[in-house]
User: Which sequence fits this backbone?
């Protein structure tokens, strides 16, 4: 990696980057890499012509030359990575995208990273904890809400049924949920 590709990732307010996936291992002998994608659909990660790769504290920009489905996964070729040895050096890197590069969403739609960390309260004002992470189940996404004691609750992300209000500015989500459940 060259220094002209370095980026500053100092945390100020909203996250500057969102993690889209990870390079897992080399694929073949010509520098291709296997890609584990967190996007939905899986190959949506290939829509971005440039990825930021984070290895430890270092973040560097890499141009995606080509990418495709391979079996049940994805593989990609990055500019300047032409040998397996070069690909091995990038294995394990997280694939980031600047948050400002994400497509705008319709009203009432959210990226998962926006929901993580929100305080979750019931309509009655009972604090349930904070959104730790989300799970994709097929039927609907599930919020994993963790309270300070470490107890986890699984709440279906069902707008207007369970999730009554999301206030990103106040970092709060109001839910219709029995605190004893």
Assistant:
């Amino acid at each position: 990696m060259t220094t002209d590709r370095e980026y500053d990732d100092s945390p100020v307010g909203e996250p500057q980057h969102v993690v889209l996936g990870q390079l897992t291992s080399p694929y073949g002998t010509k520098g291709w890499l296997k890609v584990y994608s967190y996007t939905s659909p899986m190959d949506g990660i290939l829509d971005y012509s440039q990825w930021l790769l984070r290895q430890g504290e270092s973040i560097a920009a890499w141009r995606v030359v080509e990418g495709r489905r391979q079996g049940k996964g994805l593989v990609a070729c990055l500019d300047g990575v032409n040998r397996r040895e070069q690909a091995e050096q990038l294995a394990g890197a997280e694939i980031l995208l600047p948050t400002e590069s994400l497509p705008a969403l319709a009203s009432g739609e959210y990226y998962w990273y926006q929901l993580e960390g929100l305080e979750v309260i019931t309509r009655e004002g009972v604090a349930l904890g904070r959104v730790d992470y989300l799970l994709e189940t097929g039927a609907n996404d599930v919020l994993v809400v963790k309270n300070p004691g470490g107890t986890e609750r699984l709440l279906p992300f069902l707008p207007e049924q369970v999730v009554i209000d999301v206030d990103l500015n106040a970092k709060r989500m109001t839910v219709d949920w029995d605190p004893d459940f």
Notes: The two ends are 50 Å apart (CA to CA). The domain at 112-175 is CATH 2.30.30.240 (SH3 type barrels.). The helical segments are 84-90, 112-115.
